[in-house]
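Re: export button greyed out
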Amino acid sequence: MSARSHDPFDEDAAAYVLGALTGEENRRFAAHLEDCAACREEVARLQVVADALPLAAPQLSAPPELKQRLMGAVAGDAPDGASGRRWRGVRDVRASRGSSPGRWAMGAVAALAAVAIVLAVIALAGSGGGASPRVVRARVLAPGATASLRISNGRGELLVNGMPQAPPRRTYEVWVQRGGAPQPTDALFTVSGSGGATVAVPGAIAGVTAVLVTAEPLGGSPAPTSPPVIVARTG
Amino acid sequence: MFKAGRSTGGESANEPLGALADEELMQLVYKGAAHAFEVIYDRHAEAAFSLAMRICGQRALAEDVTQEAFLSLWRSRARYDRGRGSVRTWVLGIVHNRAIDGVRRRGVRDRGVVHDEVIEAQVPAPERTELEVARREEAREVRDALEQLPKEQSRVIELAYFGGLTHVEIASMLGTPVGTVKGRMRLGLAKMRSTLAHPAEAMR
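Workaround output, generated via the alternate export path:
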């Protein structure tokens, strides 16, 4: 190997993929790689091993508080920082530096809007308060699933199609939002084998700005513990 | 070496997203989808935190590093390049850089050695899904491949990768010539590569 024309670089590939070259060596070797196919090949060959090295560390569980803090910070980044105190599942427990827990909720909703497989909010009937039913197309997270909110005589009914089953030991829960944080309802539901469900939204629909669905523990939850999978805005 | 990050279910409350591959999830993360980001976190947090613990040797610092790494991933969404490897490799690369920066900045001593705190923290997570079982198995293979190397080879690889030391620093620490350290790195990595390649081939 020492007979090759680029002797100074012969041993560098391994140190390079391990990040063990000095700054100046690293710069020179990187420049050399531009011109040397043999060294590029050697780097690619050894890079595979370097990429696997993280797994040589003893594998430990990540602390749950870490996730809470992280998702709290992520929620704090959400563009819509509206109030709301119910999304405690992701509260930043250590330091709530100005990020209200509600932001996570709003962030999740905003994100859902971005994902939206079904985007259009369609008012099929007149927008007035007449007796004719109004159908609002909901935003649904699951690919291929659809949901709509049917409003009639001051009541709401959620029609769901093609939804996946709730995760193990969880059920879907309906929430209503009246400007502020989502309020729990006692409407818990599962979907049929084909992913269908028809669920009455408890209470009057007047003043409700959005109907949401999340997956919750079997008995329901007083505060959402996961991001919404369905969002129907009435406005 | 890393298997594709496709879920086998049960790893997250975000079940519909759990069916998506990492690369598909990243498309959603670009658009600001926090729940897609959460699934990415759930899939890679264990490996990320374990790597950070191995490098930092202190739980508090390792947690900070892991959080910073994932936050930077969230905040600079645009930088993942599919051509550069899997999302997992990319995430662990960020954690690695941040952890090495962290120990340098805070002057952590004994870099590259396994600390007591790491050993104490070894409460293995339950292997809930097929994916997790496969990942643990993969981790065992990598660890075995490293441990099978002659000690002088594994030592320089560990000091470089987990300690963030240059070959010059390692040479001076071990009292060996500079060229010797580079050569041990090359021999060690080449040997690991063939060890890791063979069981995979035997399975096919």
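The beta strands of chain A are 134-137, 139-140, 146-152, 155-161, 170-177, 182-189, 197-201, 210-217, 230-233. The button fix ships in the next patch.
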